[in-house]
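HUMAN: Would you supply a protein with fold tokens?

ASSISTANT:
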Amino acid sequence: MGQVEAAAPEGHRIPRKTFAARFSLGERYGLNSEGDVSMQYILGIDLGGSSIKAVSVTPEGHLLAEANVPFVDRDREWAHKLRVLVGDFAKQHGAPAMSIGIAAPGLAARDGRSIAHLPGRLMGIEGLDWTEWLGSAQPIPVLNDAHAALLGE
């Protein structure tokens, strides 16, 4: 499993265990004595063919943490690792994300809550309702990864 890493405001990658010791962000980012962030954050997830990339950001857009978790495309390993990863971010930040967005390969469903069509890989992704799978109180929008990349530009 990949480790969630805290990030300095400038975007440098910093191992979680050294985040509080190396940066005096205290009141600005709500760090507690263990160096974990207990604040509102937004989680962006990119599900690829062999890894899951995720970032957490403040509502203002400041990068807090990032992760890259490799997986083997069998037995829905990707789905289980993604659920664990969301839990890891919640533990690190002291709360569930206020909002989550997912980009994944395939044709997104009309309701934007799942992937409707992706033949031949990531078995089980078609029709998976991410809001239910991740137990989110808020609806989780799902976009085709290429469309998400275009929106990011």
About this structure: The first strand starts at residue 5 and ends at 7. The two ends are 30 Å apart (CA to CA). Residues 8-33 have pLDDT under 50 and may be disordered. The helical segments are 19-22, 26-29, 77-93, 130-133, 145-152.
